[in-house]
Amino acid sequence: MRLIADGSTPLPRAVLVDALEHDDGHTFEPASPLFLAAGDRLRFEGGALVVLREGGKRHDLVGDRYWRCRVRPAPGPPPPPARHTPGKTPL
How many CB atoms are located within 10 Å of the residue 34 CB? Predict the structure, then answer.
């Protein structure tokens, strides 16, 4: 599920999260799984994630933020190795 962490968009439904991936490739992993209620708003402040609850209550979450590198799979089998062509090679 895609969550918007702009600090003003409320969550449409309750979710249980163990990691949040940011569009820039960073991942935030809370110290323990986190229950977010419908209506909660998320915001990144520096390297921390902040949850704003209805009624104005604020929770600064403890966790790790790091850059996740993704290795893309090759589109197909590797090309065959180049073979030596006998004779003169044009320049």
Answer: 20
